[in-house]
Amino acid sequence: MTNTALITGASRGLGLALATTLATAGWELVLTARGAADLERVAAELGATAIPGDVTDPAHVERLARAVPELNLLVNNASGLGVTPLPPLSVYPREEFGALLETNVIAPLALIQATLPALRATRGAIVNITSDAATGAYEGWGAYGATKAALEQLSNVLAAEEPDLAVWWVDPGEMNTRMLADAVGADEASGATDPAKVAATLCELVWSRPASGRVSLQ
């Protein structure tokens, strides 16, 4: 029986690297991201299903859930960075913080809620991509880190409430992605870990299926 994965933020970075690794392993993939052209190109290359859209849109979440009547793996990888350059909390715009919470916390929970029946049917797994900013006090990263801390606690409680599922909240460490480049500059980001290496480690996690919990790949 073929395994099925749903990956958000799949058009570049870690989402793309993970989709590529899973496709090579024979998984069926449903991929989503906001950039339709890039997503459809990736899906065509991998033989995957592309459903472009914004994960903060409830109608889009429902479309994704209908596409996976049975689901082995949900990866909540799509994430926003927030205001750049990264401002201190003393001047962080409250409306921008609300939008960041919507993207990084509320949207992943909404997609989990919508796909839980499909995940329960296969005793599947959920990977929520988080950050060391969820636990560390890094200047400028307060708003982003707060959203990731919230996502970690949601994951922690979900693991207790859904013992038949595997729920991992994964800190991948710094990766050479556009998001990191937007935060720290392209030169510094270029020295970070290749997302393909992180994706390979994540797949090993999925294959071995350890107990639910926080996983740091740093």
What does the model show?
The structure is a single chain. 49% of the residues lie in helices and 14% in strands. The protein is α/β, with parallel strands linked by helices and 218 residues long. It has one domain: 3-Layer(aba) Sandwich (Rossmann fold). Helix 3 packs parallel to helix 4. GO terms for molecular function: oxidoreductase activity. InterPro entries: Sc_DH/Rdtase_CS, SDR_fam. Keywords: Oxidoreductase. Belongs to the short-chain dehydrogenases/reductases (SDR) family.
The CATH architecture term is 3-Layer(aba) Sandwich
**Overall pLDDT level:** 95
Strand content: 5-15%
Physical arrangement of strands within the biggest beta sheet: 3-2-1-4-5-6-7
User: How would the global form be characterised?
Assistant: globular
Query: What letter string, H or E per element, gives the SSE order?
Result: EHEHEHEHEHEHHHE
How many separate structural domains? 1
Class in CATH?
Alpha Beta
GO molecular function: oxidoreductase activity
Enzyme class: oxidoreductase
EC number: 1.-.-.-
Keywords: Oxidoreductase
Key descriptive features of the protein:
single chain, 218 residues, alpha/beta, Rossmann fold, 7-stranded parallel beta sheet, 8 helices, 7 strands, 49% helix, SDR_fam, SDR family NAD(P)-dependent oxidoreductase
Furnish the topology, listing elements before pairings:
Layout: E1 4-8, H1 13-24, E2 28-32, H2 36-46, E3 49-50, H3 58-67, E4 73-76, H4 94-122, E5 125-129, H5 142-161, E6 166-171, H6 178-184, H7 186-189, H8 195-208, E7 213-216
Parallel strand pairs: 1-2, 1-4, 2-3, 4-5, 5-6, 6-7
Helix pairs in contact: 1-8, 3-4, 4-5
Organism: Nonomuraea guangzhouensis
Keywords: Oxidoreductase
Protein name: SDR family NAD(P)-dependent oxidoreductase
